[in-house]
Amino acid sequence: MAAAGSLTSSSIPATPRNVLALRLAVAVFVLCVWEGLSRSGLFYGEVVPSLLAIFVSMGKLLIDPIFWRNLQVTMVETVASLAIGAGFGITVGIVLGANRFLMRAFEPVVYYLSPTPRIILFPVMIMWFGVGPGSKIALGALSAFFAIALSTAAGMRQIDPILIRVGRSFRANIWQMAFKIYLPAMRVPILNGIRLGMGTAIITVLLGETKLSNQGLGYMIMQIYTRFDMPGLYALLILVFVIAGGVNALIGHFACD
Amino acid sequence: MSISEKTSLAQEPALVVDDVVKRFGRGTEIVTAVDHVSFTVRQGEFVSVIGPSGCGKSTLFNIIGGLLSDYEGAVKIGEERISAPHPAVGMVFQEESTFPWRTVIDNVAFPLELQGVAKSERMDRAHHFIDMVGLASFEKAFPSQLSGGMKQRVSIARILVSQPKILLMDEPFAALDEQTRLLLGDKITQIQQELNQTTLLITHNLTEAVQLSDRIVVMTYRPGQVKRIVDINLPRPRTSDVVGSDAFGHYVAEIWNDLREEASRGMADSESAASRRATHG
Amino acid sequence: MAEAFLRRHTPELFGLATLLVCVLGFEALIRGGVVNRYIIPPPSDILLAFERVIVEENILARCRDTAFEMLVAGGASVLVGVPIGVLLYRSALWRRAMEDWIGALAAAPIVLAFPLFLVLFGRSPKTIIVMGFVHGLAPIILKTVEGLASTRPVLINVGRSLKMTQSQMFWKILLPSAMPIIFTGIRLSWTFVLITIVGIEYLINLGGVGQLINELAERYDLPGTYAGICFVILVSVLFFLALERVESWLQPGR
After folding, report:
1. Average pLDDT of adjacent 10-residue blocks, chain A of 257 residues
2. Which of C150, C158, C165, C247 to mutate to test the interface with B (most CBs of B within 10 A)?
3. In this complex, is the C-beta atom of C34 within 8 Å of any C-beta atom belonging to chain A?
C-alpha cells in the first residue's frame, strides 16, 4: 500500500545521502552566516566573534589545567547528586509502583512537584548544606529524584502481567521475582529515568555553580562572562553542551539495546 | 419500478473491471499482485470478491477506489477510467476510520460539510442515515464510547450520506466477532435492498460473502487471478436465517472447494518465508 | 454520601494526612529545639509570612510580571513552533535531516547560556523572554511533526476518497487529528518556559517572582524565603494542573 495514506510530498527523496548533504549544507550555511555577521561589524565588541577566535579559545581551554580541574569538580558533584537521586528515586519508584494505595496517596505529590522550577530551592539548600559542593549536590539530587522516581514507578506498572504470572507459575520466591523478572523488565525505564535525571542534574549543578560558588564549570562560565571574553564564553558553552550531550547519548545507548 | 425496467437497468453495468494488472517492485523482485482480472458489477447488484490473504484483494480495492492510480488495464464507471478517487465510489475501510474528535452525527455529516450543505439540512440527512444503521440514540456520542461494530456502522452511514452510486467495502467486519458480523450483515442486506445500492465487498470470509452477495468473484492466491464467478441464487429479501438453509451450505461447500487449494498455497508460502527468515536471520 | 467519599478517596486523604503530620512534626521538632530554627523556620512562621509576602512584598504584582513574560515567550513558541512543525512534516527530507538536531537542542542545557543572552539582550526582561522562547520552541516543533505524522493513514484515505483539497485535508483531518499531540507539546513547552523564566529571574536577579525569592534570601528573611518558595511552587502546580485540564478538555471522547 505504498501510494495510499501518505500526504508528505517532496521532490527530493529522503535517502540517507540526501539527508547528510542537507545537514552539511545547513551547517555550512549557518557557519557562513555567523562568520559574515562577525565580519560585518553590525554588533558591538565581540558579541559575535569569528569562528577562528572561538576555535582558538577552545584549544586554549583544552590545554588549560584550570578547565580540567573545574570539569572534575562539576563531574564529581553531578555523579554524587545522580547517585543520591537515583538511590532515593528508584526506591520510591518501586514502592509507588508496587503498591496501589501508596501510589494513589503519594504519586500525585511527586508528579505535580516534578515540573516546578527547582532552582528557587537553591537558597534553602545553601542554608542546609552550605555554600560548598553540598548545596549543588543536594539540588542536583532533588532534580534527578523526580524524573527517576516517576520513570521507575511507570516502568514497574507497565510490566506485562503475563511475565509476572509466568514467574509465579514457576513458584519463584520474592528475590527471584525481583532479580529475574522485575529488574530485567524494568531496565529500560530505569535507564531512561537515569538519563533524564542526569540531564537535569547536570543543568542544576551548573546553574547552582553560576549562582554561588568558587569552583566548577558554572563558576568558570561566570568568570569568563565578567571578563567579557566572548570567544572564551562561546568555547566553554560549546564544550559543556558537547559533554552533556555525550553523556546523554551514552546512557541512551545502554537504554536502547 | 416495473420488472422490465429493472431488468433493463440491470443490463447496464455500474462498474467494469477490465483486464486489470498491478505489479509491485522492480527488477527481479517483481510481485504480480493482480493478474488480468476482469468482472462487472451491475446496477443494484451485490458482488463480493473473495480470496485468501495475498490474493491482491486490497490492491484491487485501492485501484477501484482510485487510491492506486498506476495500473494496467481499466476500471471503468460508464466511459470513465478510474485513476483518482471517483465521486461515484464510496469507500468503507477495513480499519476503524471514524474521526475521534467528532461526534457520531458530525462524523456522518462530514461529507455534506465538505459539499457546503447548510447545517440544518446536513443534520437532517445525517440523522436519516444514522437511523438507518440503527444508531439513532448515539448521535451525540464520540466514537471512543462506541463498540467496534457501532463504529463501522458510523463509517457506513458516513459514506451512505454522500449517496455514492457504488459502495465499495474492504473487509469492513474483519475486526468484529462472528455474531456481530452476522447481525451487521442483516443490517447491510436490509439497507442494500432498501436503497437498491450497488455494492462491491472485498472479503476473505466465506459465510459473509454467501450471506450477502448476488455473485461472488473467487480469486486465486498470488498472482491474483479470477478463478471463478459464482451466482448466488438465494431468495431475496434475505436475512441471516439463510445461513441455516441447505442451499447456503451447498454454496459454502462449493466455494470452499475452490478456496482451499488457494489458501493452502498461501499458507505454504508464508511458512517457507518464515523458515527462510528463521535460518537466515 | 460523606462516608462514600471518604471510602473512595482513602489513599488521597491518607497522602494529605501524611503531609500534614510531617508539617506538624517539623513544627514540634523546631519548637523543641531539635532542629535549628535559623535553618528551617517553624511552619507556623512560614504560614504567617505568607501575608507579609503578599501584602508587603507584593508577590501578586511579581506574579503578574512573570506571567507577562511567560505569555510572550510561550505565545511566541507556539506561533513559531507550529508552522515550523508543519513545514518539517511536509518535507520528508528536511524532517529526517532536522528532527534529531531539534531533539538534541531540546536536551541541551541552553539555560546555561544565560550570560551570553545577557550580553546580547542586556539585563532586561527581553533576555528572560528570549530564553523562555528558546526553551519552549523544540517540544512544540517535535510534537507538531509527531502529531501530523501519526494521523492514521485510513483517515487520510477517507479524505482522499472524498476528494478533499489539500487545504481541506489539512484543516479538517490532519490538524484536528494532530491537535491532542500538539497540545501535549504546548504543555511541555510552557512547563519549560515557566521553569526557565523563574530560574533566570532568580539567577540574574531581575523581573518577577524569581527575583523576589533571591531578594528575600539575600536579606536572610527565612520565613519570607520559605513562604515565597511555597507560593511559587503552589502557583506552578496550579498552572500545570490548568494546562492538563485544557489538554483533556481539548480531546473530547478520547
Report:
1. 44 83 93 88 78 93 94 95 95 88 88 88 90 93 94 89 74 77 85 90 93 91 90 93 88 73
2. C158
3. no
- Tell me whether B60 touches chain A (CB under 8 Å): no
Closest CA to C226 of C49, C25, C65, C57: C49
- Considering the domain architecture, whether residues C126 and C149 belong to the same structural domain is answered as yes
Nearest neighbour of C232 by CB, restricted to A7, A109, A120: A120
- Closest partner residue to B85 (CB to CB) among C163, C168, C177 is C163
Residues with Cβ within 8 Å of residue A1, at least 6 apart in sequence: B58, B62, C153
From C67's Cα to the closest Cα of chain B, the distance in A is 31
Q: Count how many residues are written for chain C.
A: 254
Domain that holds residue C35: 2-40
Any chains having at least 3 CB pairs less than 8 A from chain C are A, B
C228 neighbors C217 (Cβ within 8 angstroms): no
CATH classification for the domain delimited by B1-88+165-237+254-281, as one of 3.90.1150.10, 3.40.50.300, 1.20.1730.10, 2.60.40.420:
3.40.50.300
Q: State whether A3 and B24 contact (CB < 8 Å).
A: no
Closest CA to B15 of B71, B70, B61: B61
pTM, full prediction: 0.82
Question: How distant is the alpha carbon of residue B206 from its chain centre?
Answer: 13
User: Which contiguous run of DSSP H or E holds residue B117?
Assistant: none
